[in-house]
Amino acid sequence: MENFIYHNPVRIVFGKGSIAELARLVPPRLKILMTYGGGSIRKNGVYDQVKAALKGRKLLEFGGIEPNPEYETLMKAVQLARAKKIGFLLAVGGGSVLDGTKFIASAIPFKGEPWDIVDREVPVRKAVPLGCVLTLPATGSEMNPFAVISRRGVGDKRPFSSPAVFPRFSILDPETTYSLPPRQVSNGIVDAWVHVMEQYMTYPVGAVLQDRQAEALWLALREVGPRALAEPRNYEARASLMWCATQALNQLIGVGVPQDWATHMIGHQVTAEYGLDHGRTLAAIAPALLRHQRARKRAKLLQYADRVWGLREGPEEDRIEGAIRETEEFFRSVGVPTRLRDYGVGPEAPARIAAKFERRGEKLGEYGDLGPKEIREILEAAL
User: Fold this and answer.
1) Rg for the chain (alpha carbons), in Å?
2) DSSP one-letter string for 242-308
3) Domain around 203
4) Which of 126, 145, 225, 247 has the most CB atoms around its CB within 10 Å?
């Protein structure tokens, strides 16, 4: 196992009725900016619960944050927050709202061009404090320091991270997920699954506990994901799915182990170029990447085949392919197709997206050596 430092300061407040805890969790006397997306929180009652919990506080609102939060939109919130001297940000919604809010929190005190935080990876040393009321289990952003931001004008979707943007708290009430469209729930299941994969599917380093924790998350997702879709108001299923998604990317299973993240980085660029849902890009790219890298991921693929899918007999190559096929079938079983062509992505995509990575000089994967040639091959297989 590799050396590591693990610190996670996020207070999780989980369960029915927990939005009322905002009155205690949000620091008094600070001017608050509540951020949200397209308005679904008004329909499902979350907006009213937040307003009731913060009654009497200085509360402003900023809505309209997109599913892939856009830099231009977020900068409007930054300007508002600066003008109104906002002291606390409250993200109410899914991972995209929270990611966007992390950028807003970073950009408010930032000196210079805020896009440099993402594009040039300028470190964020200071951010306005923020909290979260989560309504969509998927990204794990509620318990990590990561965010992904889009800028349509330049065709980019890029991540950034900073300890300064850990939420001070995240409220997770599974009942807020009851009204989610099935497509969003399905995407969230796939996103959580691939988050685990990015931290597990590399090469062995003797991290026995981390491997077992990752495998437990997959087995739990297999069990509760389909049930959460079939029974939207099943509290136990929705609660378990919500907690799985948080655990999949709160960095605990990733300590002391090599990590990949190539599937996500390629998927972000597919989203930037074609507007596909994030979870759907992952469902197509992850199996293609596993096949492309099967020789270097062999030991972990065989372990995955054994422990997650029960494939223990027959030639090793057959077990590896069987595990990848089972993964694809699981994605399809929760309503997510596993080919880019299923989403209308054409044969021009591999070269187009690979060229983007070439211009940026980026190399991907746990070895840091997947370049434009390999990215193009993976995308060709994903079509």
Assistant:
1) 20
2) HHHHHHHTSSSTTTTS----HHHHHHHHHHHHH---HHHHHHHHHHHHHHHTTTTTHHHHHHHHHHT
3) 182-382
4) 225
